[in-house]
Amino acid sequence: MAFLISAGFDWQFRTHDATSSSSATIKASGRLQRPTWSLAYAVLGYLVDATIAVAIPWLVVSKLHGHWQLSWFLTANAAGILCAPLLLKRWSQQSLLTLTALTGGCLIFMWPTLSSLMFTMFLIGLLRGQANISFFTTIQQATTVDRNTLMMWVLTIIDTSTVIGNLLAPRLILTLGSWALPILGVSILLFCLVRLISLRHHPKQSSSDIDEDC
Question: pLDDT tens digits, residue range 27-83?
Fold first, then answer.
């Protein structure tokens, strides 16, 4: 049922996108000529997904001393992902840079308490769902590049980042304990801040990069 609902949202989004103005399509196509930063944000997002997949069960067992809470956290995360297409209609102007920064902000508040993790897991699902839709929609709109080759590299890079995240997450948790997710969030926020400062101090940067980030 969840898959059918998601497919329905996806079909509706495609229909809406197909009726968009030609100027918007041209703008998106130009933006896809250099998707480097979009891909960087996607890599960060999948590293977050991989870390959460390891960290949340560990927090439930070692800090909350239970097991039933994990089901509620995963349900909240799934609910956020399913709500992402609805939010996209009202919040479609938010860039991947903004979504990545907001994801980092949510990680800062992921402390081992029931209320904190329930709320942040929902928000993480919401933000990650919207970021995935925005990212892959941007890739699909490419008309001036070889989309098949681009998609091959995109999937290879994000799958690799997921594997790396799964391998590094246990070591991160063993080293930092409950601080692992908040420190990861601070690191992502610093990355986004440096990127934003870079954009502000390079007015001659190509318009495609500026449109992609801001």
Answer: 444 444 456 788 889 899 999 999 999 999 999 998 888 888 999 999 999 999 988
SS3 content of the chain, % helix, strand, coil (to 5): 85, 0, 15
Q: Is 54 helix (H, G, I), strand (E, B) or coil?
A: helix
Tokens matching residue 161: 């980042």
Q: Which two tokens stand for residue 80?
A: 């956020």
Q: Are 83 and 129 in contact (CB under 8 A)?
A: yes
Average of per-residue pLDDT values in the chain: 78
Query: Using CA atoms, how far apart are residues 196 and 2, in angstroms rounded to an integer?
Result: 36
Contacts of 54 (CB under 8 A, 6+ apart): 166, 169, 170, 173
Provide the b/e sequence for 109-123 (b: ≥16 CB within 10 Å). Answer: ebebeeeebbebbbb
* Nearest-angstrom CA–CA distance, 209 and 23: 17
Pair of tokens at residue 148: 């098949």
Nearest to 45 by CA among 121, 100, 2: 100
* 167: helix, strand or coil: helix
Radius of gyration of the chain (CA): 18
Q: Would you say 86 and 77 are in contact if contact means Cβ atoms under 8 Å apart?
A: no
- Secondary structure tally for the chain: helices H, strands E: 9, 0
Q: Which of 125, 117, 112 is nearest to 173 (CA)?
A: 112
C-alpha angle with apex 186: 184 to 192, nearest 5 degrees?
Answer: 105
Whether 21 shows a pLDDT value over 70: the answer reads: no
